Amino acid sequence: xxxxxxxxxxxxxxxxxxxxxxxxxxxxxxxxxxxxxxxxxxxxxxxxxxxxxxxxxxxxxxxxxxxxxxxxxxxxxxxxxxxxxxxxxxxxxxxxxxxxxxxxxxxxxxxxxxxxxxxxxxxxxxxxxxxxxxxxxxxxxxxxxxxxxxxxxxxxxxxxxxxxxxxxxxxxxxxxxxxxxxxxxxxxxxxxxxxxxxxxxxxxxxxxxxxxxxxxxxxxxxxxxxxxxxxxxxxxxxxxxxxxxxxxxxxxxxxxxxxxxxxxxxxxxxxxxxxxxxxxxxxxxxxxxxxxxxxxxxxxxxxxxxxxxxxxxxxxxxxxxxxxxxxxxxxxxxxxxxxxxxxxxxxxxxxxxxxxxxxxxxxxxxxxxxxxxxxxxxxxxxxxxxxxxxxxxxxxxxxxxxxxxxxxxxxxxxxxxxxxxxxxxxxxxxxxxxxxxxxxxxxxxxxxxxxxxxxxxxxxxxxxxxxxxxxxxxxxxxxxxxxxxxxxxxxxxxxxxxxxxxxxxxxxxxxxxxxxxxxxxxxxxxxxxxxxxxxxxxxxxxxxxxxxxxxxxxxxxxxxxxxxxxxxxxxxxxxxxxxxxxxxxxxxxxxxxxxxxxxxxxxxxxxxxxxxxxxxxxxxxxxxxxxxxxxxxxxxxxxxxxxxxxxxxxxxxxxxxxxxxxxxxxxxxxxxxxxxxxxxxxxxxxxxx
Length: 689
Description:
It holds the Pfam family Hepar_II_III_C. By secondary structure, the chain is an alpha+beta fold. The chain has helices at 2-17, 127-131, 162-170, 175-182, 186-202, 214-234, 244-259, 266-281, 285-302, 314-333, 339-354, 379-385, 468-473, and strands at 43-45, 51-53, 134-135, 143-144, 398-400, 406-409, 424-427, 445-449, 452-455, 481-482, 495-500, 508-515, 520-529, 534-543, 551-557, 563-568, 571-575, 580-588, 600-604, 614-618, 621-624, 626-633, 636-647, 652-658, 664-670, 673-679, 685-687. The chain has 2 domains: 2-76 and 355-687, Distorted Sandwich (Beta-galactosidase, Chain A, domain 5); 98-260, no CATH class. It is 25% helix and 22% strand. The strands form 7 sheets. It has an 8-stranded antiparallel sheet, with no helix packed on it. Strands 5-6-7-8-9 form a 5-stranded antiparallel sheet, with no helix packed on it. A hairpin with a 5-residue loop joins strand 24 and strand 25 (664-670). The protein starts with a helix and ends with a strand.
């Protein structure tokens, strides 16, 4: 019954999600998931469904042995699935399926490119606030920006906030008046026209020198297109010659679009879409050709052959996916086709499905708010978005992407069970220099179990200013290995060195290493276990520097609704409002085998020069949360973290001993269940029982 009720709620949420839009500036039949075998195997199903061998489960010295995973190896492009099942993003009116055949801007036919809506700005603004020359965005108060007669001070920046000025300059905030005018409100029409004319009057020739206006230019161009629609609606489908000023401004915006294209990321894609749409509307073939050529130029860099976005943020990957679907459909209606765009959209959708954790939301890394897939367009995305109610899951439960991140789960679940109670995890590899990335989150582990987050990222610090943006992009905000005594920006790519995944999802082992060149390296190995749920994380760091004794820290942040205590030097417990208690155990791997006083620390909401213990559920909303820090000192440090999410009534205990060959033996007791883990001297981990 609980599953049926949950599915009813999931259906309602899905129905709602399919009629919502997200602006990041402002988301085959199932297998049973019950494999009979629980033995360790030396192979793993890799991205794309191919089979790859793991590195040998053998001992070795500390220097990681690099293993090149076998990734997708398919010549040419892989065709996108034919069964994209979700409709185009809802929010603008349906667009006609054939190009506008008009020869001039006086067309009477329904345009092929219609109003692109106003993002989230109508949430904060209304016809009444527009009429009084008030503007509002996000957490900021209503602000008087004009004299009440549409004479606006476009230089205002009262909160020194880039987001506030971006959406102010974009004109999206007058969307309520434009849409009221569409319904016949003449007063609202005059107000919208007055504000638009005021902006044009105050920017008569060029604003190319205003670098902050690059993004606003595209959004403003779309607002002008929305207003153009209303002008034609009020004039029987004819574009009056008296509105030549509007056409001139549209062309000037196109000129700026061409001169300052943002390149291969979502801003550039939005610019391509706007320029192509305008070119189709007013029959400017040159605009169309430029936009299409830019799409073709940028797309291979924006979406790789595995479908991974070049923006290291699941929320932005999802946004880009929807943008590309819109661009593809617009190209078709304008008479253009792109084999390249079509070929990778299905791959992109499947990749995004893997970025969803057990709560149905995206793993929150990079510039990502708490969000979930919107308008899921492939069977795999839909399965992930609906907890297995619709669609079909991807064949591999673990995906290793060449660009860095690895996503895994104990099972995709079934239609009857869903996957909320499975263990889902991600380990962050890559360069840290990707767009929308946080440089400091390399080697970060995130995971969910028991239907909730267990350890979390600090979240989205985009466009928030100092000190929070640099903090949020640095190592202090992430579940990684922090070395405050070393310049960590010298680090290279964090790459997979070895892995081993059993067929039943128990004891999934993965290891990544990042080199600091001549300065040393840091390595993280994870062993993710299901039934009972637990994670063992082994961090090993070697710094080649005889001039100082380094501080090396393993950091863990828990959800903001939890309360954490540290009852002993090596143990911390974090209680959720639900029936989950997560136990953290700090165990030295190298050196002194006992945790010393002060080596396990707890922070919450610390500000100042070294902020700790904060979380951004949304871009402009910060909350305090608990962060545990396991500190060790020296130039060769090994730290084991045992993380056990269990029922509050289940006692948790960990004992450490040695096998006859010298390997470390961990026995983890969770209620009446027992897990045994073996860790070799070289750091390889496996679940014995």
